[in-house]
Amino acid sequence: MRPSIEGAPGSLVGNEDRVAHRPTDPTALGEGIRTPWSRSERPLPRRIVQPLQAFLGTESAGGLVLLAAAVIALGWANSPWRGAYETLWHTRLTLRAGGVPVSQDLRHWVNDGLMALFFLVVGLEIKREVLTGELRTMRAAALPVVAAVGGMVVPAVLYLALNAGGDGGRGWGVPMATDIAFALGGLTLAAGRAPGGLKPFLLTLAIVDDIGAIVVIAVVDSGSVSWVPLLVALALVALAVLLRRIHVRAGAVYLALGVALWVAVFESGVHASIAGVVLGLLTPAAPFQRPAAVSREAHRVADQTVDDPWPPDADAPQWLSLARLSREAVSPLARLESALHPWTTFVVVPLFALANAGVRLSADALRSAAASRVTLGVVVGLVVGKLVGILGASALAVRTGVGTLPEGVTWRRLAGAASVAGIGFTLSIFVAELAFPSGALLEHARLGVLLASVVAGGLGYAILRGDRPAEEERRR
Amino acid sequence: MKVERGEELRLPWSRSDRPIPRRVIRPLQSFLETEVASGLLLLLALAVALVWANSPLRGAYEDLWSRHLVVRLGRWGVEDDLRGWIRDGLMTLFFLVAGLEVKRELLTGELRSRRAAILPAAAALGGMVVAALLYLVANPSPPASHGWGAAMPTDIALALGVLSLAFPRAPSSLRVFVLSLAIADDLGTIAAVAIFYSHRLSAGSVALALAIGAVVFVARRIDVRSSVVYGALGTAMWLALHGSGVSPTLAGVAMGLLTPAVPFHRPRAVSREAHRIADETVDDPSPPDADAAQWLELSRLCRGAVSPLARLEAALHPWTSYVVLPVFVLADAGVRIVPHALATTSSERVVVGMLLARALGKPLGIVLGSWLAVRLGASGLPAGLTWRRVLGVGAAAGVPFSVSLFVAELSLTGPLLDAARVGVVLAAVLTGLLGFLLLRTRERAPS
After folding, report:
1. Do A36 and B268 lie within an 8 Å CB cutoff?
2. Nearest Cβ partner of B293 from A18, A24, A25?
3. How many CB pairs under 8 A join A and B?
4. What ipTM was predicted for this assembly?
5. d(Cα A172, Cα A445) in Å, to the nearest integer?
6. Model pTM?
């Protein structure tokens, strides 16, 4: 669910012009690549479909869709139709084969099932960053890593200080998280074309933060682990590694394996989203075929096929084989990321927000939350803790010479990014659901996350907007 | 262009020269590519099912296939035993491929021209009508009479399998005849399932399914090409038909017939793009996958140069022949052969009717239909086809037992269903031998 930085491998963002359909020969009209109806000049595509597509292609789209989902959830849960909201998300979806039922309500299917896809993409992004991105070299990685650690430790400490000894103590993981879609979306909205170094910094920071969140999820949620399913899960992982070794490349095989792994992890008591992370980390980052070999094959197929074969589709095997080969010129990691990214950004995460952000804002609820140390801890942790932690750790890193500020990044901009990182939204709610199964504490935590996300976002916006140099740089 | 070592296309492990691929996987792959493979797999599944169901482990056989599988959302749900899921669910894929094959043959194959289509169509019609009539003669009264539909069908994979097993170097006219006959037969079976084996039809469900079909049509018109969309629509249509009284497998047929048979892009335009992308990409981009967008675009374009029909057929065909049909036969053919249970008069008559229909009616009907077509001057007998071979094909057409088992499941229950299964399997053995002999001996004769 993260709008990637420009030119990020596996992401088509910023690459639109490279894949534009331009007919090679302008005289051969009607012989070029055919544009589908949605990109034609008819009224409906021109007025509705194309603007929509253009919007979805922008970097802040994911954040805005997520925001819309959260607002709808809040509005719905506080409207006269709130009964329908609860009924919908409490509807049970049951799968039963023989004696083993998997039965959960829709909210948990979203949180445990669909969110595994989100975590799969997170796993892919972590792997890509570590192998080819900012996290590859110690030197470049030092600053965001240190900053992220500071941004996790300080909020957790602040939260624990406010909730020492109480029932709310279990929620220490809630203010540690950063919502990457909101954070990057907020950054883009506030700073326009954000200065070059700031976006990779925030992206890397958020990915390190994700690693932290995964650890937190594993720790918070490891109530009672049953070993047999866990061993089955490990065996499945070993099987996946083996299949990779013998070059099994069929997506169907890994899909089946992934579903089985999900079920095993689900049954083991460890949070099922971990299955997604593990699969993401296992995905190969190198293409199977050398691009040069595929290029040769592409020339050959292009020369040997004819325009109007008889029987029709006589060339189908050649075209399909070239289609497979050109996919294999791309690493499975990039392929999976570009296939899943739109789904997690525009479907999975908004659905999560729709299912989980519907907090009731009655006077009673607000009054009890205002007095709650959980709410206070979450708000202070996310708003103050993130800002202080990230800024402090960065300052420490720069002072001691461990890291250097990226080009174009001033302390003020860093403060803006740190503030925006306090939008914990998705992951914070996710951790809150694990820490507090239900009841008042969960409501308090959710309210805290909502409030903190709004405040942190507003603060970051104010800091970045007021940054004149950023404006000037944008105009240049 | 000189290609250096390590720069050619990389072979996966399964095609390398290591011991396991060389001794096990590659021979297996080349066997699976032959035409007899899927037929032999079906026979294997049949044998396993029969032995298993009559062994001391038969309890496990029944337990496995009658295990319940439930998908339930709130108040709505689909619940059936495993056998039902295979019959209504997996077999939908088989009928999807059947729909694709029918469409392809009608548009570009032998059935395209009316003149060429008459002979196989008449043969198929004769085979179906005579087989059903003979069955009805033996079983004139309900409920046994409902099984007439199970006496008719042929399926393509097995019919072609029998032909290539018995007559490996069959002239292409013979192969085309068998293929078109089996396709026409498919159409007949589909019609029978749709028209005669629908009970207590729920008009609302059927209307919903039709509406979904209309949505598919509109989506095609506005160039929606995402397979996810059509997968979802097909599933919705299947759900609408499930429990409507019509076999939900018809959703597969409908989706197959709705699949476009022309490619979206002109091959020439894709060729040009392929040259361009091949030139513009580099071998070792930095960062890695910097060219990913271009390669994925080329992959999409290449798929766009192939019609969705051919693409879907290529993707699904291995699954239906090597997984769906064998699993169906494994789940469905395991009839307990208990002599005293089959000794009731009604059961006996079903077995006899099935034998008569498939071992006698099918070959005779096919010869009769063809003879009438030729006699009435509507068609000639293509070169390479003799009456003996037509009879051999007729016998081979009596072998395929999988679709017969499918229709039997729809039309009969209890001991009568078991009797029908026994009849279908016995008839398959008889006609298999007959067809093998008829087609085999001709091979030695000079042609």
Report:
1. no
2. A18
3. 224
4. 0.82
5. 10
6. 0.83
B72·A19 Cβ contact <8 A: no
Name chain A contacts of B69, Cβ cutoff 8 Å. Answer: 96-98
Verify whether the Cβ–Cβ distance B291 to A291 is below 8 Å.
yes
Count of the separate structural domains present in chain B: 2
Closest CA relative to residue A410, chosen from A204, A198, A259: A198
Mutation target vs A (from B283, B299, B319; most A CBs, 10 A cutoff): B299
Domain-embedded: residue B332 = yes
CATH architecture of A139-194+204-221+348-476: Up-down Bundle (1.20)
Per the structure, the complete domain to which residue B279 belongs is given by 267-301
Triad B367, B373, B374: Cα angle to 5° = 90
State phi, psi for B12 to the nearest 5 degrees. -70, 165
Q: DSSP readout, B244-265?
A: SSS-THHHHHHHHHHS--S-SS
Same domain, B182 and B59: yes
* Any domain includes B221: no
User: Across the interface, which of A37, A297, A334 has its CB nearest the CB of B289?
Assistant: A334
And the tokens for A390? 């990230």
User: Tens digit of pLDDT per residue, chain B (447 long)?
Assistant: 455 556 778 888 888 888 888 888 888 888 787 777 877 888 888 889 989 988 888 888 988 888 888 888 888 888 888 888 998 899 899 889 888 988 888 888 777 777 778 888 888 889 889 988 888 888 887 887 888 888 888 877 677 777 777 777 777 778 778 888 888 888 888 888 888 877 777 888 889 999 999 999 999 988 888 889 999 999 999 999 887 778 888 899 899 999 999 899 989 999 999 999 999 998 888 888 889 999 999 999 999 999 999 999 999 988 888 898 889 889 888 877 776 666 677 777 888 888 888 888 888 999 898 888 888 877 777 777 788 888 888 888 888 787 888 888 888 887 888 888 888 888 888 888 888 788 775 444 444
> Is B39 within 8 Å of B161 (Cβ atoms)?
yes
Q: Which residue of A has its CA nearest to B299?
A: A323
Closest chain B C-alpha to A134 CA, distance in angstroms = 11
Neighbours of B78 (CB within 10 A): 18
CB contact (8 A) between residue B287 and residue A9: yes
- Minimum-distance CB partner of A31 among B269, B292, B307: B269
Q: Which of A387, A381, A393 is nearest to A145 (CA)?
A: A393
Answer whether A296 sits within 8 Å of B1, measured CB to CB. yes
- DSSP letter, residue A167: G
- Partners of residue A338 in chain B, C-beta under 8 Å: 292-293, 296
* Distance separating the N- and C-terminal Cα atoms of chain A: 31
Considering the domain architecture, whether residues B187 and B277 belong to the same structural domain is answered as: no
Q: Which of B74, B281, B292 sits opposite A10 (nearest CB)?
A: B292
Residue B236 covered by a domain: no
